[in-house]
Amino acid sequence: MKVFKFGGASVKDAGGVKNVLQVLETEGTAEKLVVISAMGKMTNALEVVVNDYLQKGDFKNALQPVKEFHREIMLELFGHGEHPAFASVRGLFQGLENFLQHNRSANYDFVYDQVVIYGELLSTTIVSSYLSSCGIKNDLLDARNCIRTDNTYRDAQVEWEETQAQITAVVNRKTLSITQGFIGADANNFSTTLGREGSDYTAGIFAYCLNAESVTIWKDVPGVLNADPRVFENAQLLDHISYEEAIELAFYGASVIHPKTLQPLQRKEIPLYVKSFLNPANPGTAVKKGQPILPKLPCFIVKKNQVLISLSSLDFSFILEKNISEIFSLFHKYQIKVDLIQNSAISFSVCIDNKFNNLEKLISHLKATFRVNYNTGVSLYTIRHFDENAVATLEKDKKVLLKQITRETVQLVAIP
Question: How far apart are CA 109 and CA 117, in angstroms?
Answer without folding.
Answer: 12
